[in-house]
Amino acid sequence: MTSRRVLVTGGNRGIGEAIARRLVADGHRVVVTSRSGDPVEGLDVVACEITDTASVDAAFTAAKEKLEGDVEVLVANAGITKDTLLMRMTDEEFSSVVDTNLHGTFRCVRRAATPMVKARFGRVILLSSVVGLYGSPGQTNYAASKSGLIGIARSMTRELGARGITANVVAPGFIETDMTAELPDKTKAEYQAAIPARRYGQADEVAAAISFLASDEASYISGAVIPVDGGLGMGH
């Protein structure tokens, strides 16, 4: 495993934190972003508001100092949800989710791309969701933002693939997190019944897929969508 300089957005908790810790264990040098920039035990943190271009630029600059070089692997994980049914969804509820999850990821990818092109090496890994492919009632905004990431990765692959840069998407399904723990038991049972594996995934299982895509062994994989969903979204 070649040690790389890695930035994980939204890596201060949940799936993002699991990804960051797995990549540290793999021997990479890792910096994570959070909105607040508050410390996280065992991880280097920089503040970043991905809806603001200047904040993204400052975060990459700060990460470069901590990593002692430009980011080689970007894991774009940061995102939000504002769930409600389509006919009740406000313009703000739609646009804020798209601006964070899709436009925010674009801001980070754009900032990372220039030094990757100069180095003729880069790994870009975007965290989508089974919802982006499968759809989900009450999540029109979230589904739109997450499906859009596939377009970013595939366009980036065609633009920059000849420069040693790969861009891939990981699409988790229902993963055990603080958010899913708060669901009513009946709802959790209904979700589990729809999953062929009959269980929720673990954050470490998502991190394992990221670990592979960041590795030397994944150098000929680009523009792919890798599901980590227990079979829920197969065929989509």
From TrEMBL:
Q: Name one Pfam family in it.
A: adh_short_C2
Q: Which GO terms describe its molecular function?
A: oxidoreductase activity
Domain of life (superkingdom): Bacteria
| SUPFAM superfamilies per the UniProt record, alphabetical | NAD(P)-binding Rossmann-fold domains
Note the coiled coil stretches, chain numbering: none
Which UniProt keywords are listed? Answer: Oxidoreductase
What region holds the Ketoreductase domain? 4-178
Query: Which family, according to the similarity comment?
Result: Belongs to the short-chain dehydrogenases/reductases (SDR) family.
> What name does UniProt use for this protein?
3-oxoacyl-ACP reductase FabG
Give the source species: Janibacter indicus
State the gene name recorded for this protein.
Answer: fabG
